[in-house]
Structure formats: structure tokens, C-alpha cells
Amino acid sequence: MITARHATEVATLLREAARAEILPRFRRLAQGEVRSKSGPLDLVTDADEAAERVIEAGLLRMFPGAVIVGEEAAAADEGVLDRLVGADLAFVVDPVDGTANFASGTPLFGCMAAAVVRGEVVGAWIHDPLGDDTAIALRGEGAWIADGEGRHMADLRVAAPVPVERMIVAVSWTYLKEPMRSQVAGRLARFAGVVGFRCAAHEYRLSASGHCHAQFYNRLMPWDHLPGWLIHREAGGYAARFDGSAYGPLHRDGGLIVTPDRHSWDAVRHALLDP
Predict the structure, then answer these.
(1) Residue 43 predicted with pLDDT over 80
(2) How far apart are CA 273 and CA 153, in angstroms?
(3) Alpha-carbon distance values, 227 to 204, 205, 249 (Å)
(4) What is the structure's pLDDT at 222?
(5) Domain count of the fold of the chain
(6) What is the mean pLDDT of the chain?
(7) Taking the CA of residue 153 as centre, how many other CA atoms within 13 Å lie in the half-sphere pointing to its CB?
(8) Distance of alpha carbon 107 from its chain centroid, rounded?
(9) DSSP per residue over 96-112, as a string?
(10) Considering the entire predicted model, what is its pTM?
(11) Integer Cα distance of 13 and 23 in angstroms
(12) What is the distance between the alpha carbons of residues 81 and 242, in angstroms, rounded to a whole number?
């Protein structure tokens, strides 16, 4: 099981990886240190790859025999994702979430990890390298922000429910297919405001701290959502896939709507997806 001591140790590891491999490269990437993976919107940098190596090595020192599923390792070999199935203990790692922001010098990116025990997400971390603090959650024990020294700064709590017309939402429609793509984009004016950070790490932190009412995603890669999903859940929130089914570590499609409660989920789904 992941303990409070483990929670602090993993947060420290993410911080050290960020300080050693990510921050020294921010706004200093040389030509050739940014590359495209599956397309022009899917980037990788030397910082992503170097930080993932540091995090993987550190996790294996702490948890010998654990399965490590890193975004960049999975990009090189999709079979890595299958290692989540049946693993007694696995860690999903996104070394730089918001790589497009990082590569363009935009100060909005994060370093994420989630612990999965036999198919159940039990621990989550979202480190903000520039803010030098980490959102942490342990299953059944709540969610909180810890500073760079591991001190508990504040508990996390989702926003109080409000009607759709008063909601601030984070909607990612980039990977939606038609006709859903046009439908969703055409309905955004139903909300009070819409944000798009190009960074799930900070969107989840925004929601878990009560400053955003809903998130909407189509593509579900585990490193993008497992950490934020648990942090938001432990902060009191509710999430489900577009069809209302529960979200889990093995899901890669089916969409995800994240809200303060089930009633808000129904309202957001109706606002964006119902005929």
C-alpha cells in the first residue's frame, strides 16, 4: 500500500527530476531538442525523456519490482501500456504534461504520476515545477497541496455546484471527431467561461482546488488522467465517461466528464452532448 511517507517521497522525486532535468531546459531548448511524435500537436522534448528516466529509476529504487508505464516509453512501444493489466503495483508517469506549452516557453506545465494497485488507483501526484508545490492524493485519505519541503499547505476541495450558466469549464475538443466536435464547440457559450490550458495537470489542479467547475476530455491516455482523476475524486468530486460508466486505468477512450457532483455531471453532459 502507498503510505503518507511514500506520498512525500514520490513528491520529492518529482521535484528533484523537475529541478535536474526540466527547469534547466525551460526556454533553453536547442534546435533538435523538440520533436513531433504522432503529429504536430503531439510533441516530445529532451526534458520529457530525461525526466522520465530519472523518475523511473527513482520509483524502482523505492518500489523494487514495480511496473513503470511512462508516456515516452509507451510512445516508443505501445505494448508498455499492456503492463498495467494485472500488475500488483504500477506507476503511470507523465514527466512533462503540457509539453507544447513547455516547448513554446509558456509557463504552464506539470509533472505527474499515479500509483495503481491491481487495477485500482491508490496514489496521485501533480507537481508544479515553477510553483514548486505538489498536489497529492491517497485513496480514502483526501487530497492536499504540499510545498517543496513536503509540508502540508492546504486541503483540496472541489467547487460548490452551480447551474451550467455559472460554470467555468475546461473543455478539450481537439481530438473529438465530427459531428461531436462541431456540436461541442458550438455549445461552449452555454457556460459562464471556458478555459483551455493545453495542460491537464493544471486543469485538474484548478478543479480540485475549487476554481473550475467541470472538465471535458475525449482522449484518455492514463498518464494524462489517472493522477488528476484521483486528486479530484479525493477532493470530493465526481467523474464518469460520456456514457455514465466509471473511469478506470485501462480506459483509453469513451471520454471523461469531471464535475463537483453527479447532478453537475448530468447537467454538463446534457449541455454538451445531448441531442
Answers:
(1) no
(2) 38
(3) 9, 10, 10
(4) 96
(5) 2
(6) 94
(7) 14
(8) 17
(9) EETHHHHHTT-S--EEE
(10) 0.95
(11) 14
(12) 22
Amino acid letter for position 73: A
The parent domain of residue 266 ranges over 164-272
Asked if residue 179 and residue 134 are part of one domain, the reply reads no
Question: Do the Cβ atoms of 233 and 267 come closer than 8 Å?
Answer: no
Average pLDDT over residues 28-43: 75
Instruction: Check whether residue 137 and residue 170 sit in a common domain.
Output: no
CA 212 from chain centre, in angstroms, equals 15
Q: Is the pLDDT reported for residue 174 higher than 70?
A: yes
User: Can you tell me the distance from the alpha carbon of 62 to that of 60, in angstroms, rounded to the nearest whole number?
Assistant: 5
- Report long-range pairs for 70-74 (Cβ below 8 Å, ≥24 apart): 70/94, 70/95, 70/223, 71/95, 71/221, 71/223, 72/44, 72/48, 74/223
Query: Residue 198 is part of a domain; what is its CATH number?
Result: 3.40.190.80
Q: Is 188 helix (H, G, I), strand (E, B) or coil?
A: helix
Report the C-alpha gap between 242 and 9 in whole angstroms. 35
Judged against a pLDDT cut of 90, whether residue 27 lies above it is answered with yes
Whether 234 has a pLDDT exceeding 70, the answer reads yes
Domain boundary among 120, 155, 190: 155
